[in-house]
Every structure is written in C-alpha cells, then in structure tokens.
C-alpha cells in the first residue's frame, strides 16, 4: 500500500530519499495500484525539473497527465521533461496538447518555441517567441531564445545586442556571456570575444569550458602558444576533459613540438580510450616523428574503434611501407580503397609498394588510376615514367619525363630520371647534359650517381660518363 507523502518543505536530502521511495514504488507497481494525488505528482515533477532529474520527471509527469488529462500544467511539465532529455519531437507533441488546454500561457509558448528552435524550425519558433514577448516583453527565456535564433540566422549584431542585455540578468548572465562570446567570434570580432571569456574567468577562474573556448579562439587567431596555455588550464582543472587534451596535442603539433603533442594525446586517451579521433592524431604525430611501429599500433587502435576509417588504413599502410613491410602495406591500401576508391594518394602509395614488390603491372595500373584522379601530380607522373622504362617502354617513359621538365625545367629528380632512362637506352652522350643540370640543381644527386648509376649503365658506361663529366 502506498502510504507516504511528498513534503515540499523538507530539506534536499529528505526530498531525495522520498523521491527514491517514490521511484521504488513505481518500479514495484504500487503507484499504479494506489496513485498519489495530482498535487503530489505536481510537486514531485517540479522538484525533478528544478534539480534536472529529467528521467524521473518524465516518469512522474506521465503519471500526472494520466491522472489529470485535462491539466495544461501536467502536459507542459511532461514536455519540459522530454525537452530536458533532448526528445524534441515528443516534447512538441506534449506542448501542442498543453496549448490546446491553455493557449495563452506565456511560459508554454516560450518552451514550445525553444523546442521548435532545437528542432530546426526557426521561422515558427521565432513567431511564437515574438508572440510571447508581446505579452511579456521582459521574459528572460523568451529573450534568450530569440537571441539564439538570431545567432543561428547569423544576424550577429541583433543577437549580440540581446546577449549583452541579458548579461545584466543574474539568472542567465553566465550562459548569456558564453553565447555573446561565441556570437562575437562568429562575427569576426575576436578581441571582443576573448574579452568576454576573460570576464567569465574573472568570476570563476576554474571554469574549464571557458579556458577551453578561449583556447579555441586563440587557435583561430593563430596564437598557438596562448592556446596551449588555455588548454593546459582546462585539462588541469578537468583532467578527464578529452577535447582539451585533443586540442592541446593539435596545438603542440602545429608549432612542431611533436613529443609534447604525443604526450597530450596519450593523456586524452587515458581520459577516454574510446575516442577514435585522438588515437588517430597520436598515430599521425608518431608517424611524423618516424616512430613507425608505434604509429602503426596507434592506427590499429583507431581501426578497432572505427574499422572503416580509410585515412587510418592509409596511415598504417604508409607506416608498414616505411618499415619495408610492403605486403602488409598493400593490404591496408586495398582496404582503404574499398572504403574510398577516389583517393589519389592511396593509389599512388599502392603503386609504389607494388613497385617495391616488383609487381610492375599492378604498379603501372595504380599509377595510371592515381593520375586519372589527380592529373597534375607531377611526381606520380615521373614515377610512372620510371616504371615504364623498367618494362622497356623507353619512348613513353622519355615522353612523360619531358612533360615533367616542361613544367619544372630545373627539377633535379626529373633531370636525373631523364639521364637514367637515356642510360638504359644506351644513349650515354645524351645523358651527360641532364646529369650536369641535375647535379647543379641538387648536389646530392652526384652522390646518388656515384653510388648507383653503374647498375643502370654497367661498368664501361659508368667509366664513360665519369670521364665525360670531368
């Protein structure tokens, strides 16, 4: 038998305990057999909404509207509970029912307008909010909702004026100042936006979100070291703030401090091991550091969370490539291309890996596909030319290298490649001027020539070229 009452005058601990008992009675079916009065349910629902216990509010608001189906307040509070849980279509249906019962309730109009705004129905939301403001011009929630709609419409000046006005209202000052800072940033008034975040921090220096948002703003302004200080503060205040660690790592990477970037990403992973994005960024930093085995592990962790991440498959393939694990690299490139067959970089990498495996026909096909997707990739064209030379298509190879040199006449790689293909064709005399130009453009090509050109032209050919180059 249900035999306890709700006491609005009890302290919070007693109310929480009573709420627990009501919740237990509901689970046991006791409330259905002996329901509380609508007045008791109203008090429970109001307490749950005030303390943002929206799951509980939804349960008891449902009981309330069932016991008082013609109560506008019951349907209204049911809508508020649904709104608190982000169930906007259901909330709108509840507000519609409440409005049928009481079409002039200003608070109801405002809450319905907010639900419409959250559902993306901005025109209808704005109309309702304006109706509410006609009867109650100083209604705080209505003014706030109007400002939010203006912000979404990018009518920045109007939104800024409203948010500035609302910062004078103690009940919404913090939220209004956050939105004011964001709207100022959207309007390109970055210094003013930063000043608003500073005002928030002057009131509460341990507001992790304000430090984070100020860091984002500093990054937008190109002040990466200042953004690092902000993200440091946000993550120190809230060590589980994954986004702060993520952005801190990105900021360190931007200024080239890759080890510190990797440390930040690892801290983020410790806070949330299920975030594929932070595993991926750790992998890219480790790869850039040349730690290919560790990078491959981080890419694998990304893929465990997001198996169809084509960029992670490509990244792990490049790490295998760097370790000369070409079979594994090709397998990852193939998997990446199943997800996204339009990525020219993956086709190019696949071609190089197949070339290194001496699977020349497959390499040629992949080079050609890469060039179909990205016809201006001059480096891919040069690699295709060299692969063609290896299968004896000398004329096609020379033609492609010539087209590369027409675009970049002093490109040492293309000049050296031309000499190499001419050497394969035993046109040694014609190769000499290209070698001279290659050495002039990039002196390291001379060392490459001394160490490896004999494999192209043989000992006698090498002797001839060395004499000709004196």
Chart the SSEs and their pairings.
Blueprint: H1 12-27, H2 30-33, H3 38-50, H4 54-67, H5 72-84, H6 88-101, H7 106-118, H8 122-135, H9 140-152, H10 156-166, H11 173-186, H12 190-203, H13 208-220, H14 224-237, H15 242-254, H16 258-271, H17 276-288, H18 292-305, H19 310-322, H20 326-339, H21 344-356, H22 360-373, H23 378-390, H24 394-407, H25 412-424, H26 428-441, H27 444-452, H28 454-468
Helix pairs in contact: 3-4, 3-5, 4-5, 5-6, 5-7, 6-7, 7-8, 7-9, 8-9, 9-10, 10-11, 11-12, 12-13, 13-14, 13-15, 14-15, 15-16, 15-17, 16-17, 17-18, 17-19, 18-19, 19-20, 20-21, 21-22, 22-23, 23-24, 24-25, 25-26, 26-28
Determine the number of helices (DSSP H or I, runs of at least 4 residues). Answer: 28
Mean pLDDT figure: 92
Strand element count: 0
| Reported CATH architecture of the domain at 1-103 | Alpha Horseshoe
Q: Can you describe this structure in just a few lines?
A:
78% of the residues lie in helices and 0% in strands. 43% of the residues are buried. The chain has 470 residues and is mostly helical.
């Amino acid at each position: 038998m249900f035999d306890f009452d709700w006491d609005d005058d009890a302290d919070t601990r007693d109310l929480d305990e009573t709420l627990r008992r009501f919740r237990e009675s509901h689970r046991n079916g006791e409330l259905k057999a002996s329901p509380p009065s609508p007045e008791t349910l109203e008090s429970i629902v109001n307490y749950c909404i005030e303390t943002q216990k929206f799951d509980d509010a939804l349960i008891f608001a449902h009981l309330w509207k069932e016991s008082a189906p013609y109560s506008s307040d019951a349907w209204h509070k049911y809508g508020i509970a649904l709104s608190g849980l982000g169930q906007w279509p259901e909330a709108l249906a509840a507000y519609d029912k409440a409005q049928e019962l009481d079409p002039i309730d200003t608070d109801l109009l405002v809450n319905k307008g907010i639900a419409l705004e959250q559902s993306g129905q901005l025109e209808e939301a704005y109309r309702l909010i304006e109706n509410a403001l006609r009867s109650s011009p100083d209604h705080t929630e209505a003014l706030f909702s109007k400002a939010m709609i203006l912000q979404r419409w990018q009518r920045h000046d109007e939104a800024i004026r409203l948010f500035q006005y609302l910062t004078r209202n103690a009940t919404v000052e913090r939220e209004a100042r956050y939105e004011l800072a964001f709207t100022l940033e959207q309007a390109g008034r970055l210094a003013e936006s930063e000043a608003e975040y500073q005002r928030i921090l002057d009131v509460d220096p341990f507001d992790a979100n304000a430090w984070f948002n100020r860091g984002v703003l500093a990054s937008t302004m190109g002040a990466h070291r200042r953004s690092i200080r902000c993200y440091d503060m946000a993550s120190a205040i809230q060590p589980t703030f994954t986004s702060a660690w993520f952005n801190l790592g990105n900021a360190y990477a931007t200024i080239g401090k890759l080890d510190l970037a990797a440390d930040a990403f690892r801290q983020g992973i410790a806070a949330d091991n299920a975030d594929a994005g932070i595993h991926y960024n750790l992998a890219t930093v480790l790869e850039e550091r040349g730690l290919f085995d560790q990078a491959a592990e981080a890419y694998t962790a990304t893929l465990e969370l997001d198996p169809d991440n084509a960029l992670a498959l490509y990244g792990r393939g490049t790490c295998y490539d760097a370790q000369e694990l070409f079979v594994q690299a090709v397998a990852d490139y193939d998997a990446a291309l199943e997800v996204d067959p339009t990525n020219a970089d993956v086709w190019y990498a696949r071609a190089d890996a197949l070339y290194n495996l001496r699977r020349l026909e497959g390499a040629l096909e992949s080079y050609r596909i890469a060039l179909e997707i990205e016809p201006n990739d001059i480096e891919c064209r040069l690699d295709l030319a060299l692969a063609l030379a290896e299968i004896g298509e000398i004329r096609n190879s020379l033609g492609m290298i010539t087209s590369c040199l027409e675009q970049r006449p002093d490109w040492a790689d293309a000049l050296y490649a031309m000499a190499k293909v001419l050497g394969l064709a035993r046109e040694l005399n014609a190769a000499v001027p290209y070698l001279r130009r290659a050495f002039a453009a990039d002196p390291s090509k001379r060392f490459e020539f001394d160490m490896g050109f004999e494999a192209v032209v043989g000992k006698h050919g090498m002797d001839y070229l060395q004499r000709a180059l004196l």
